[in-house]
Amino acid sequence: MDYGLMVIGIALLLISYLVAIGKQTWLLAGFNEKNITNKSLLGKIVGGVFFLPLGLLVVIHSFMDYQNETTVLVIAMLVLLAITYIIINKRVYD
Fold this sequence. Notes:
Layout (H helix, E strand, L loop, with lengths): L2 H18 L18 H25 L5 H23 L3
């Protein structure tokens, strides 16, 4: 059991809750606030589509130990990031 991954996973789940449910979009960096029409929808998409699955995946991987574990996590993170980027560009931006 990897306690470092467990802590990171719990932190990602906490951020997911704060962004999606708590509407704390100030935690998100790198977006132009002038172009966002619905910050609540942005929080739900980023918190629910990116942070929640990634946090759950990291917590699950903290219990397992296998070869190339970091590669699997990085690829999963990049796939989730690409999906989130596409959804945001189609639904949130003007």
